[in-house]
Amino acid sequence: MTFPSPAPSPAGTDATADTAGSAEPAQPASAFVGRSPGQLMWRRFRRDRTGVASAVIVLFFILVAVAAPLISLLYGKDPYTTYGLDDPGLLNEYGYPLLPNGGISSEFWFGIEPSLGRDVFTQLVYGIRTSLLIALAATLTTTILGVVVGIVAGYTGGRTDNLIGRVIDIMLSFPSTLFIIAFMPVVWNLLVSPGEEMSALMSATTLIIMLTVFGWASLARLLRGYVLSLREREFVEAARVTGASPTRIIFKELLPNLWTPILVQATLALPLYVTSEAALSFLGVGMMEPTPDWGRMFLRGTEVYQDDITYLMFPGVALLIFVIAFNLLGDSVRDAFDPKIKH
Amino acid sequence: MSTRRRPALAVLAIGTLALTAACAKGNAGGSADAGSSSAPRPSETNLTELFAPPKIEVGTADDSKGPAIEPEGVVKGSTVNMIDRDDYPHLDPGRVYDNVTANFHLLITRGLTGYKKVGDNHYKVVGDLATDAGQVSDGGKTWTFTLKDGVKWQDGSPITSADVKWSMERLFAPFITEGPPYIQQWLTEEDYKKSYKGPYDGKELGNIETPDDKTVVFKFNEPHADANYALAMTGYGIVPKAKDTKEKYDKTPVSSGPYIIAAHSLDKSMDLERNPNWDPATDPIRGAYPDKWHLEFGYQALAVTDRFVADTGDDQKTFSFYTHVAAERTQQVLQDKSLQDRIMRRPSPYGDYYYFNLDRVKDVKIRQAIAYAWPTKQIQTITGGPDTSVINTTILNPSVSGWEDYDVFGFKQHPEGDLDKAKELLAQSGDPTPTIVYGYNNTPTEQRVTVAIKNQMAKIGIKIVAKPMDTKTWYDATGKVENGLDMYWGGWGADWPTAATVFPVIFGPVRDGGYNQSHLKDPEVTAEIKRIEGLADVDEANKAWAALDKKIMETITPLVPGLNNVGLQLRGSKVGGAEIDPISWVVSPNTIFVKP
């Protein structure tokens, strides 16, 4: 009698080969039986030093973002006050910090912003908060939308699949950046009534919606492919024969096998959205002044770098570290799930 | 000098300033005192002189005789090169209403009057084709011009009074929509295209008379003391009656000036050669020293600046009419000692205003509180510092004749804003915590300026609701009467340096697309404008305009004056006589020559 395992993924079987050659040799068969794929993945991930280091860095960034108001409180500055304009001793008449290294001092740890004279440290901390929140929300929504559409297309097949496939084609071939740049002012006009200022929440929401609209298609296409191959497998056939409802098949049979690509895609998508958000702010359709924003800081840095390289360094290096760390983390997660493609 | 080019110029100016900020003297890694305001800088010594308005007066018949006054060390001959971003939109002088194109037309088009440079920052309005700057009679209603002997078209036929009359009449034709409106309105009515349709169907305009081949008489409905200034605009340049091809004239103009267009490749290049029938003895304005001009278009500021900085080969004989030093290079240009003798600087003759919408901000106390608290110094710091702008306190730009300095709101005494006074006024007003909807050009610099304004106003309890707006459609959006905004930036440049081209326009009729952006409808002001316009004596009128300027600011405060910008340009080392013209804010071709 065959037993339709809920997760007979290649990762599960190959795990033996992997663990066999590693620090825990000669694992008896009983150990294999007792571990879920999740546990196996976790064990493999813990042994990946790069992965753990990246995860620590990523966690640090998330912690900074979450604790931004607390940091600001302890540090005694906020990202909105124009210290340099209010206090004549900080900026010269061209708007550049008087002190060397972008005005770094015991009072302003990362220096002060040229022109407006705001505190760079709190700007960066709050900027990370803004960017991470938007990227996280966009990742969540695109993943959910992508998963739903992908499974529906793959499982139902036929006309539905055809229709969804064409929609995905269109979405993937759409010049999304251009579209967002052109369409964003229209959205703002529609949403913001005259006489009111657009709130930071509103522009964050529009950004998330835009990123979602153009972000779900690639994940959906990927999952459709997985589902297409999975639904012809014996365990799905068997479930269908035993009279399982489509809901049960999707949630109990298909979805557990899809967690690997979903998680990997999501961890790779998040840094992408951080950079996308930064790029859109860079292009003038992201978060508006005075909301602190990573991308806009970076833009300003490229304008003033000849005279104040420090102001480019802090957001630039922070962005670089974060994106590299998150990408490495994504790689490690994939490797942990799917050691077959380990380099 | 014009309304139509103004939005582009404003954006250009803002862009320049934004980028200037990026390159101004920096202190990253430098010592603490390297850029402090106490350290001496080359520009500081000269500021008063630099910002002195040009002296402009009406010249005599003697002044109107050619040739033009030669710049020091002038050398005639050779070819000069000019590089810029854009080709000229119109070669038909009747369709020109922007400073850059008007400046080019000095090479090929003449008019009845024009500006003659008589000294440093000193100009005279003289007769160009006419023997003098016009004879006034009938209390300012009748202007008589007599044409010089020996003035000819490029084909050698003489320029006659019939040509002048024709050139004015054709401005009423339906296809000419771009030029200035003044003379047409003065001859007929405000909506001048209604009363006369142009000369092409054989009808003449009765109140321009040509008693003989050399005399033109303008008979205006009301006195106009400055018709000679108006006629100096390129829009009133002459077009030959015999060779007027209507719409096609815009492609194939006939030259009355010192050069003929020998070749023109649209948006790419243009070559000019001498007009053999132009006699320097008849022209008090144009030097026309080079034999040939080679103009090239399509260059951005950075490329132009780099070529001038490198100064090699043919680029030594090259200059630019209006390309300012690219932002990324401003610091380099200002600090490089070897470039100092090739730098041209000039304050802008355009007025910059932060208008109140008087339909919405009705309480004068609130308007004045905002004016008192205005963060002038902060805005200056953000837009690039005192090397590229100066604090302005009046409605009229200092270059407009009759301008008188006053500082009602202490912009110079309290450049950071007088918060105490503002709070005091707010407390007396109807609403001590008003909300102001402020529209701004959505550019990075303007966003920063808005942050400064917002923070400053928050200090006195005013909530600023900032609305980012598209730069391209800026004037369309703010020009609507129902624009939904309380405050917004706007600019205006005098068409000729008299307040008669400022006040009647920016406090004129309120309509969609109009230029009265503060919606000021004060009967007293309107009556005073009408009265001053009717004054025949220019000095008296100027005094009255200056008094009106101050009175409007004191009693109504329809705007907060913005900063005056300062232009910065470079040129090749072998180009002589180049300077930014204080009236048009572009480099005039009249004095250009090539050093050997």
Automatic annotation (TrEMBL), chain B:
Extent of the signal sequence: 1-24
Record region (Disordered): 29-51
GO biological process, one term: peptide transport
Pfam families: SBP_bac_5 (PF00496)
Composition bias, Low complexity: 30-39
Coiled coil ranges: none
SUPFAM superfamilies: Periplasmic binding protein-like II
Gene3D superfamilies in the cross-refs: Dipeptide-binding Protein, Domain 3, Periplasmic binding protein-like II
Keyword DNA damage: no
Keywords of this entry: Signal
A molecular function GO annotation: peptide transmembrane transporter activity
Listed GO CC annotations: ATP-binding cassette (ABC) transporter complex; periplasmic space
Domain Solute-binding protein family: 124-509
Record-linked PANTHER family: ABC TRANSPORTER SUBSTRATE-BINDING PROTEIN (PTHR30290:SF83), PERIPLASMIC BINDING COMPONENT OF ABC TRANSPORTER (PTHR30290)
Protein name: ABC transporter
Organism: Sphaerimonospora thailandensis
Lineage: Bacteria, Bacillati, Actinomycetota, Actinomycetes, Streptosporangiales
